[in-house]
């Protein structure tokens, strides 16, 4: 892949050069997807675009996120701090009723076991021998142990990229393998815009058109959260289609539906894993609005 | 003229009633029911005390009743007792019992260690916060760019994108929990005895 590397190195230079060129869409020499947002910002925006005459095809894509289900594990400093806080709170606190009862019971036991015990001196010996507070504690402990919580981390599910249940502590993004031009690429599921519908409806259609997907999502707003433009290779350019603008819409997964077949063409990825699947230019654009907090 | 007329009428009436009177004197003794007209005002039942069905009496009785009711109300009017607020009633044991915890005092190294850990923690938290702020700023920038591009494309789509979504709120999402939910878990019903005291005024 020597040629693209060369082109990627020369891209800043070309962008710098093209900033001074007065042609609006005449950025040549980019075979790959390239983002031209930098030079677009400095170009004079004097083109009055009517929808009919705009050379860009519109597409809408959906960024479907499954939010974390369990709390994240503590980092080492967080663990230390947690212990410190618990210790400090214990030191600053007073004894509770339960603890006082424990102390009294212990005292009474020690008095009973000592030789100089006289049961007549007991002030009120009504019910205190029946249930000791320690026994209560033990019974509570037993009840807790009889409950088996589900496992937090399951390594086998984590490895299955198509499962929604993987990596419950992180937020996952859905990626689908779709045909773009002549190649099949991994990207956020998108679909072409049609006349008479808003972009958000296009995004909803994009989600529904995924094969074997029963996803129920809540779309967060009518406005797109990001955009990615790319120009078609010079050979494929015509008067009416210079390139494509893909608008991204954010959605939160509310119901994953039935589990998908293992050979389906979509994966759930954490933000750190997205790098391996997406093209670098695409990744820079998309990574901005995918929050990994 | 009218006087003469009335005198004629009186005479006519007297002439008519004279034979009646004469004829019915016997009758008056035999049957008191058929009393002549002239004796109507003077017969026995009608000479009794008349029933004074005047409007003043019912009104007076009602006034009396009202006054009695008012007096009763004033007697029965006791201010209602205040409902005690359970939260403000302290138990005596809070003051009586000795609740001091006996803990060993900390060594100097321990205190130093704690201070250092607190400083590290504040640094860590600050880093976290700055990262969050930066991430949010990036996301906002991405959205702004997207809206600019959309505006260049088509005005109507841009306007449609700017409209707020009325169906989004109320939006709720369950936050992260400690352990993932168990499928097909039957949670046991919690039994409890409700001992809240209910007061009525």
Automatic annotation (TrEMBL), chain A:
- UniProt keyword terms in alphabetical order: Mitochondrion, Ribonucleoprotein, Ribosomal protein, Transit peptide
InterPro entries listed in its UniProt record: NUDIX_hydrolase-like_dom_sf, Ribosomal_mL46, Ribosomal_mL46_N, Ribosomal_mL46_NUDIX
Compartments, record wording: Mitochondrion
Looking up CDD domains in the UniProt record yields: NUDIX_MRP_L46 (cd04661)
One Pfam family of this chain? MRP-L46
Q: The Large ribosomal subunit protein mL46 N-terminal domain covers which part of the protein?
A: 56-149
Where this protein primarily resides, as one coarse class? mitochondrion
Transmembrane stretches, start-end: none
Q: Name one GO cellular component term.
A: mitochondrial inner membrane
* GO molecular function terms listed in the Swiss-Prot or TrEMBL record: structural constituent of ribosome
- Does the record bear Membrane in its keywords? no
Its family?
Belongs to the mitochondrion-specific ribosomal protein mL46 family.
**PANTHER family recorded:** 39S RIBOSOMAL PROTEIN L46, MITOCHONDRIAL PRECURSOR-RELATED, LARGE RIBOSOMAL SUBUNIT PROTEIN ML46
Q: What is this protein called?
A: Large ribosomal subunit protein mL46
Report the source organism. Answer: Lates calcarifer (Barramundi)
Q: Point out the gene that encodes the protein.
A: MRPL46
From TrEMBL, chain B:
The answer to keyword Calcium applying to this record is: no
The alphabetized UniProt keywords are: Coiled coil, Mitochondrion, Ribonucleoprotein, Ribosomal protein, Transit peptide
Q: Name one GO cellular component term.
A: mitochondrial large ribosomal subunit
Could you tell me which InterPro entries the record lists for this protein?
Ribosomal_mL40, Ribosomal_mL40_metazoa/plant
Where is the protein found, in the record's own terms? Mitochondrion
Family note: Belongs to the mitochondrion-specific ribosomal protein mL40 family.
Q: What is this protein called?
A: Large ribosomal subunit protein mL40
Q: What gene codes for this chain?
A: MRPL40
């Amino acid at each position: 892949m020597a040629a693209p590397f060369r082109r990627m190195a020369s891209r800043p230079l070309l962008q710098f050069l093209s900033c001074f060129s007065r042609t609006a869409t005449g950025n040549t020499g980019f075979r790959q997807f390239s983002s031209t947002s930098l030079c677009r910002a400095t170009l004079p925006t004097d083109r009055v675009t009517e929808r009919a005459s705009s050379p860009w095809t519109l597409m809408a894509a959906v960024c479907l996120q499954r939010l974390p289900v369990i709390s994240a594990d503590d980092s080492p400093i967080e663990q230390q701090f947690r212990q410190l806080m618990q210790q400090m709170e214990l030191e600053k606190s007073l004894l509770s009723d339960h603890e006082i009862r424990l102390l009294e019971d212990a005292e009474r036991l020690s008095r009973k076991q000592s030789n100089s015990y006289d049961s007549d001196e007991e002030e009120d010996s009504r019910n205190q021998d029946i249930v000791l507070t320690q026994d209560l504690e033990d019974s509570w402990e037993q009840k807790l142990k009889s409950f088996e919580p589900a496992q937090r981390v399951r390594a086998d599910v984590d490895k299955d990229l198509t499962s929604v249940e993987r990596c419950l502590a992180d937020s996952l993004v859905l990626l689908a393998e779709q045909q773009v031009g002549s190649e099949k690429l991994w990207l956020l599921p998108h679909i072409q815009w049609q006349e008479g519908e808003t972009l958000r409806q296009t995004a909803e259609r994009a989600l529904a058109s995924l094969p074997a997907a029963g996803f129920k999502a809540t779309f967060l707003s009518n406005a797109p959260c990001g955009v990615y433009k790319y120009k078609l290779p010079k050979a494929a350019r015509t008067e009416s289609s210079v390139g494509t603008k893909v608008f991204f819409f954010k959605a939160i997964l509310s119901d994953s539906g039935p589990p998908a077949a293992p050979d389906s063409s979509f994966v759930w990825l954490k933000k750190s894993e997205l790098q391996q699947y997406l093209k670098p230019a695409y990744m820079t654009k998309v990574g901005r609005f995918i929050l990994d907090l | 003229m009218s006087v003469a007329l009335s005198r004629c009428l009186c005479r006519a009436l007297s002439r008519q009633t004279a034979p009646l009177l004469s004829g019915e004197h016997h009758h008056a003794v035999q049957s008191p029911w058929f009393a002549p007209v002239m004796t109507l005002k003077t017969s026995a039942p009608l000479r009794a005390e008349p029933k004074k069905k005047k409007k003043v009496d019912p009104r007076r009785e009602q006034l009396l009743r009202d006054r009695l009711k008012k007096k009763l109300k004033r007697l029965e009017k006791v201010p209602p007792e205040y409902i005690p607020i359970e939260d403000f009633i302290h138990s005596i044991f809070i003051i009586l019992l000795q609740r001091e915890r006996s803990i060993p005092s900390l060594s100097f190294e321990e205190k130093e260690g704690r201070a250092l850990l607190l400083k590290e923690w504040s640094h860590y938290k600050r880093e976290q916060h700055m990262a969050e702020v930066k991430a949010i700023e990036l996301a906002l920038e991405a959205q702004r760019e997207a809206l600019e591009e959309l505006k260049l494309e088509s005005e109507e789509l841009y306007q449609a994108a700017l409209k707020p979504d009325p169906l989004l709120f109320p939006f709720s999402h369950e936050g992260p929990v400690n352990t993932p939910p168990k499928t097909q878990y039957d949670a046991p019903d919690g039994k409890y005895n409700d001992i809240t005291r209910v007061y009525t005024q």
